[in-house]
């Protein structure tokens, strides 16, 4: 064998070894990153479902309070409560077939009777080197495709974790707002409406008893000196409808139906969460009875 041909064989040998090591190293990295995301996502799903169960009481209380005000433009229905399904992100694993292919490749070309032996004995160096290079190219294409698929799936997992985080924070915000701000304020607003109804009964000499006192529809206070009470009830109703539309969907479950549009799903959820936050701001702007508002 000529020195030049031997060098060419050695370079191809080195190139194939480095190519496989690089592929194997990248797969290890992606598997580790995937495992971290698996743990995070699993925890988010568990937290979200637990918090949604806890949110059920606040939603029910909010519905009952809004129903008591009457004359709502649209019928307020009971909250159709749903939980997210126990979703499972797949754990990345190395493909045994690729490891096997690499093993066969090495056995064929590196062992006794392989490439170097064939070149020496049969003097078919040009054809065999071309064949070896061709087989390596095919394997590298498969490795690159595998890496691309793994990276795409990792992107999906990262976005899924981001969405779950956004989702959980939204649940916390809604739960705290209903429990600590809206329900206490609704108590005060309803007491005001009752007091105003009693005032009218006294004014018109109507018989007053706990059985016949009925307060006026909240819409009658629009554009009066009590407009803030009207706005609070109206905005709370809008807030209720907004969160119902959001929480009666299995956001994360639906997300897994088509992994190719995960970025669009995140944009949609960002938009819905911002809508909830904006609606909550409108509610808070008209709070009068709760301390600190």
How would you summarize what this structure contains?
Helix content is 74%, strand content 0%.
Description:
The chain contains seven helices and no strands. With 293 residues, the chain is an all-alpha fold. 74% of the residues lie in helices and 0% in strands. The longest helix is centred in the middle third of the chain and has 79 residues.
Identify the notable features of this structure and list them briefly:
mainly alpha
Please state the CA-atom Rg, rounded to the nearest Å: 34 Å
Largest sheet: none
What's the assembly state of these chains? single chain
By DSSP, the count of extended strands is: 0
Ends apart, CA distance between termini: 90 Å
Percentage of β-strand residues: under 5%
- Number of spatially distinct domains: 1
Can you count the helices? 7
Q: Mean pLDDT, nearest integer? A: 82
The amount of helix comes to over 70%
